[in-house]
Amino acid sequence: MAILNEIFITPFVDMAEAPDFLMQVLWEGLVSGVLYALIALGFVLIYRSSRIFNFAQGIMVVFAALTLVGLHAMGVPAWISVALTLAVMFVLAVSIERVVLRPLVGQPDIILFMATIGITLFLIGLGEIIFGGENKVMITEELGIPTGDTVLEPFGGLLILQHLDITVVVVATVLVVGLLAFLNYTRMGRAIRALGDDHQAALSVGISLQTIWVLVWFIAGIIALVTGIAWGARAGVSFALEVIAYKALPVLMLGGLESITGAIVGGLMIGMLEKLFEIYWGQPLLGGNTETWFAFVLALVVLLFRPQGLFGERIIERV
Amino acid sequence: MLDAAPTEESLLEVNNIEVIYNHVILVLKGVSLSVPKGGITALLGGNGAGKTTTLKAISNLLHSERGEVTKGSIVYKGERVQDLEPAALVKRGVIQVMEGRHCFEHLTVEENLMTGAYTRSDGKAAVERDLEMVYDYFPRLKERRKSQAGYTSGGEQQMCAIGRALMSRPDTILLDEPSMGLAPQLVEQIFEIVKAVNEGEGVSFLLAEQNTNVALRYAHRGYILENGRVVMDGPAQELRENPDVKEFYLGMSDEGRKSFRDVRSYRRRKRWLA
Hints:
Chain A is mostly helical.
């Protein structure tokens, strides 16, 4: 009985008794959630336009962050480093299209997936050769990202908002909204969506696969840089950053691989739910550290009931 | 039906092309044809005759299916085009409407049409004007402009695919099997629109069709393909009256219904199969 009580009653009593703490937990979850959503968006874009599951998204985050920090260490001013890093990500996108994707056009999906594993290994090697394997510190202050905090007192309690986190949420939101507008209202965006629906037809109306692929990989590169800065500022820049991209996998399972809305909602949901679970159930009952597996188990449960994910594209079937 | 006279000037010349898939499968064994400016040319033949392959060889969509033109030449407006990207061909005015429509099903009908204008650089106003032009030819599409294309009917999807091609301001449309899976009445309607576009916009058509009857009523000229070769060609009127075409493709015969036993002797009499 006691255990049932602890599962079903105590957590909610705690939440009700300390609403300020609940808000703090939700806020922390939201910040991670926004980043998960952003990375998931990178996956979704590449998947929709080329049916490639991009295993290299995680290492791209690391590579972008390393390049930024590395350039700054060489004495390049912070904002110019950002611009140069973007240029590097563009060159990366062009090379991936030329060297890896173009020769593999028309091959089965699994081969392209294997190719992205190859890209991952290559980037790990390249990153270590150029920048070394040791941990680095993100150039947060040099980029002008505020590091203070704001203390609010809702319900007579205490709510601490890191300025860094606020910046992350704002920037990520702007990026997501911009991306959505781009996809829905521009010629290129329409072409990306068209390519996701039907390759052959896209070719037939003169949409060039090469251009679109470079474009989506570059967008994935921009997303990687933003995530790299945000996560690097909280946890330092190392190859371990790659892990946060794998956190996007349950987001994709939950949201569906093709759905942009799914990536956003899925990311936010997983971010907040895993924090809530950790604080109110994980730590008191399971000894904590549930964040590493909670999202995957949640995704598994969702998949049992909705194999296409919560927001996966409805398979349009006419009879 | 033969009033919209095609000019003598030839727009597209296909000279003796051979197409091989996957380096081993020989599909076209020397196909030659010519598409006159302003005409409707029909490419006829049964399943597997090579109609679709011929069209894809011209529009250069073969590459993504691991096929290639190994012999012969394809010349459009005097320029050899067989090594161009599909996009470059669309810019030059040749666009293909693929068999089975291939609309972008998660895009709305209007977004589908707009993707047709992807390669254009002549400004928003011109594109808007052409959108209205397409809606004039296909009033049905205007009604369904906000619907997801995947949820529209087969006939609407065919209209959407043709309209999308029109949005690229083409000189030549390669139209693959427009009648596929449509009710006879709709087929007639689609062909009427093809004729109207041909006459109204001066767009030339090369259309692959299994429905020989309809195709020969609307086309000016026809080519009959069998086993990857052109076995007969001529003005549509002549083909319609040719006794062999009547027998094998139009299902009409002067001698009345034959029994199944006679099929063998039919084959022997197909003299063009030499």
